[in-house]
Amino acid sequence: MQFVDQWGETSYSGYGFKTWLSNNKDVALSISFLYLMFVFYAPRYIPRFMGEAGTEKNKIMQEKVKKVWVVWNLFLSAFAFYGTTRVFPPLIKNFMKYGIHDTFCTFRPEEFYTTEIGTALGLFTMSKLPEFGDTVFLLLLGKKLPFLQFFHHTSMFLFVWFAYEQGSSIFITAAAYNYFVHTIMYFYFALAEAGLKNVVKPFGIYITALQITQMVGGLFFTGYSVYHNYRKVFDPSAPGCPGTDITVSRTQLLVYIFNFYLFSEMFVKSYILPPPKRAEKPAAGAEKKKSA
Question: What class of enzyme is it (predicted)?
Answer without folding.
Answer: transferase
